[in-house]
Amino acid sequence: MLTPEETKELTRQVNELKTQIKELRTGLNQLNDQKEDAFSKKNKVSEQIRKLISQTIKLRKERNNLTFQVKRNKEERKKLNTGIQSKIKKIKEKHKERKEVEKKHKIKEKPSAIKIQIDKLETQIETSALNFEKEKKIMKVIKSLKKQYKELRAVSDVWEKTSELSKNIDTEKKTADKVHKDIQDKAKKSQEKHEIIITESKKIDELKVDEDKFNKEISAKKEEISKINTELEGKLCELSALNSKLNIQRKEKKQKRENATKKKLSERKKEAEEKIKKGGKLTTEDILALQSGENIK
Fold first, then answer.
1. H helices within the chain, ranges in order?
2. Which of 11, 127, 238, 249 has its C-alpha lying 20 to 30 A from 220's C-alpha?
3. Contact 91, 165 (CB under 8 A)
C-alpha cells in the first residue's frame, strides 16, 4: 500500500508524462505534415523531370533522324556533283570535237538551223506565187542547203550528244539544288531540336537538384520522426508502469472500503437481530442492514 505522499508523487509524474506525450504527438503530427508536404513537392518535381526526359528522348530521336537524312542527302549531293563535273568534262570534250568537225567541214551553222531554212524556203515555194526565175533561185539555194545538211548528218551526233549532255547537266543541277535546299532545311531543324535538347537538359539538371534537396529533407524528417517515436514509446511505457502502480493502489483502496462497509453492515445486522430477539422496534436502517446482510458471506 502506497503512502499518500507516494501516491501524490506518482500522480504528478503521470500528469507530467501525459503533458510530454501530448507535446511529442503534436511535434510528430507537425513533422508528418512537413514530410508529406515535402513528398508532394518532390513528386511534382519528379513528374516534371519524367516529362522532360520523355520529351528529350523524342527530340533526340527526331534530331538523329534528321541528321541521318542530312548525311544521306549530302552523299546524294556529292554523287550528283561528281556526275555533273564528269558531264561538264565530257561536254568540254564534245565542244572541242565539234569545233574540229566545224573546222574540217567548214560548218558555220548547226544541222537543225539549216533544216529550218530548208523547210522555210520549201514552204515559200508551195504557198507563194513566184515567177520562174525567183523560184529557180530558191530551188538552187534549197539544193545547196540540202547538200550541206546531208554532209552535216554524218557529224550531227556531236551536236546531239552535246545538247543531250547540256540537258542532263541542267536536270542534275536542279536536282542538286533541290537536295542542297533540303539539306539546309533539315540541318536547320536538326540544330533547332539540338538547342531545345540542351535547354531541356539544363532544366532537368536544375530540377534534379531540387529533387535531391526534397529527398534529403524527407530523409531528415523521417529520422526525426523515428527519434520522436522511440522517445514516445519510452514515455508510453513509463506511463503504463505508473498507471499500473496507481491502479493497484486504487484497487487496494476500493477493497479496503468494501471490507469496512461489509463490517459495518455485519455489525448493524447483529444489532437488528438483537432488537428482534428482544422485541424492539426496527428502524429503516435496521431493515436495510438485514436485507444487505443477506448478501454478505
1. 4-104, 111-127, 132-153, 156-278, 284-293
2. 238
3. yes
